[in-house]
Amino acid sequence: MNDDKMRQYKIAYSVREASEISGLSPATIHKLCNEGRLTRRKVGKRTFILAADLMNFFLNCPQEKHHRFAAVDAKKVR
Hints:
The chain is an alpha+beta fold. It has helices at 3-8, 15-22, 26-34, 51-59, 70-77, and strands at residues 12-14, 41-43, 46-50.
């Protein structure tokens, strides 16, 4: 199996990988972990973020409210 296919099936990511996949900086990943909003796992000296924990973090983030210009744009359509 090539690296791209293996990455699809990973159950845990290094902080760097979690950063690349999520679009968050490594510093933000560490901050979220320190705040208890994201769980990190230690295996020896390595730190991992479970794929499920990363997904749950985003699923539990507040949804963006409608943009204040959305109503104005809707009026233009009518």
